[in-house]
Design goal:
333 residues, alpha+beta, TATA-Binding Protein, six-stranded antiparallel sheet, 6 strands, elongated
Length: 333
């Protein structure tokens, strides 16, 4: 009985092994579509190319135009991989060819690549195509030092007047900042705020006594992608108060995705915080400005004596319970 049972299971296992071997032989003999392999390889290459371009650009190893070209090439490759993966799926469905896993990997990687631009598409269509924002569209602050060192492929520094209407519609809160502080003091706070925001300052020109406005030009890089934008801040006297205007210009691209307006708001918030942390002082040259927190003594009148040094009347100090002598009244004639 035991021999019969063992023989039965042995024959059954041999049958299973035979069918598995036949299935493997059949799968190996099935023709493999080239579209599946192409989709997987191109998708992997595109993903590595985009990732490498972004990392090198963020580290400052390659210029922005080259990085944009590499990213666009990666997107084109992802599109080709997606099409190849779809074609491979159709061929596998109709002819029973091998390569389903490769086709699925190509399609999945391509969709993951396109998920990035798809996530920012709502911002692209919701916000206007502006790359230059300023608080003074009629007389925008001008670039000087950054204009000389500007790459040829960068956006023009000339302000487009058609941006003013779109800015007024989408960013009405971007206005000049009027402060009841001395221009020299505000200029110092502007420089401190720019440094706290990690801007790379290119030049600083403080306000002059003849009324010439002060300027600060700086560069700011986006946090993730590392795109460089140019910023200029103008500080000038405005009828007893100080007016601060700012202009933020994207160096590349026609759409800033709202970054320039956000930068201006962040700067104004930081500037107010710097000013709130200081005590207002009178207008004075920057080289003669008093140290913050120093108590300024009261100026005495000319010829007046110091109360602490003034001599007391009488022979000695007055006693606490002593009565003051009343002046004697003179007799009338």
């Amino acid at each position: 009985m035991e021999r019969t049972t063992f023989a039965h299971f042995a024959v059954k296992d041999a049958g299973h092994l035979g069918r598995s071997a036949d299935a493997m032989t059949l799968a190996a003999s099935m023709p493999r579509t080239k579209f599946a392999t192409t989709a997987r390889r191109i998708a992997l290459f595109s993903a590595v190319l985009i990732l490498l371009a972004l990392v090198l650009h963020r580290l400052g190893r390659i210029e922005t135009p080259l990085a944009i070209g590499l990213v666009l090439t990666g997107f084109a490759g992802a599109g080709l991989a997606l099409i190849s993966g779809i074609v491979a799926g159709i061929v596998i469905w109709r002819k029973g060819s091998a390569g389903a896993w490769s086709a699925a990997a190509g399609v999945a990687i391509s969709l993951a690549i396109f998920a990035w631009p798809a996530s920012v598409a709502p911002i692209f269509f919701r916000l206007p195509p502006i790359n230059d924002i300023t608080t003074d569209p009629e007389h925008p602050p001008e670039f000087a030092a950054l204009a000389r060192d500007r790459p040829k492929a960068a956006n023009s520094i000339a302000y487009h007047t058609n941006f003013a209407e779109m800015q007024e519609r989408y960013y009405p809160e971007v206005r000049p900042l009027i402060l009841d502080r001395a221009a020299e003091e505000v200029f110092d706070a502007v420089g401190e705020a720019a440094r706290r925001l990690k801007w790379r300052i290119a030049t600083e020109e403080p306000p002059q006594a003849d009324g010439t406005a002060g300027h600060i030009e700086a560069e700011d890089r986006t946090l993730i992608l590392g795109f460089t934008d140019d910023v200029v801040v103008r500080v000038e006297n405005d009828g007893g108060s100080t007016r601060v205007d700012i202009r933020s210009l994207s160096r590349y691209g026609h759409h800033d995705f709202g970054r320039n307006a956000s930068r201006i708001k962040e700067f104004y918030a930081e500037l107010r915080a710097r000013l709130d942390a200081t005590v207002p002082t009178a207008a004075a040259p920057r080289s003669k400005a008093k140290a913050r927190g120093t108590k300024v003594p009261t100026r005495a009148r000319k010829g007046a004596q110091d109360p602490a040094q003034a001599p007391r009347s009488g022979a000695g100090p007055a006693q606490p319970d002593a009565r003051r002598a009343l002046p004697q009244k003179g007799t009338r004639p």
